[in-house]
Design brief:
- Helix content is 16%, strand content 16%.
- The protein is α+β, with helices and mostly antiparallel strands.
- It has one domain (3-79).
- Strands 1-2-3-4 form a four-stranded antiparallel beta sheet, with helices on one face.
- The longest helix has 10 residues, at 61-70.
- The relative contact order is 0.19.
C-alpha cells in the first residue's frame, strides 16, 4: 500500500479520517503494519501491502492477534487498548 493511499482511507465503523499508520519503519510502500482510528480506538491490519478495513463482525480475531504479536514498536493504544480486541485482554 502506498502512503499516498492513506488520504483515501477512513474507519469503516465511524467514518473518521485520517487514520494513523503504525509499523513498517516508515517504508513506502507499506507491507506490514496497522491503521489506527483515533476516534473509536479500532485498529486495522495491513498485511502483504493490503489494508484490511472490515467491520468487527467480519474480522478474524486469531489472525489479527498473530499479526499484532509479529509487529514491533506498536504503541500501547494499539497493542493494549485497541478495539475490538487487543493483547492486554
Amino acid at each position: 500500500m502506498n502512503k499516498s493511499f492513506l488520504d483515501m482511507l477512513a474507519c469503516p465503523m465511524d467514518k473518521h479520517h485520517p487514520l494513523e499508520l503504525h509499523g513498517d519503519g516508515g517504508a513506502d510502500p507499506i507491507m506490514e503494519g496497522v491503521l489506527y482510528c483515533t476516534e473509536c480506538g479500532r485498529f486495522y491490519m495491513i498485511s502483504e501491502g493490503i489494508p484490511v478495513l472490515l467491520p468487527d463482525d467480519l474480522r478474524n480475531r486469531a489472525a489479527e492477534m498473530d499479526h499484532l504479536r509479529g509487529l514491533q514498536g506498536l504503541p500501547e493504544k494499539v497493542t493494549l487498548r485497541g478495539r475490538p480486541w487487543n493483547l492486554g485482554a
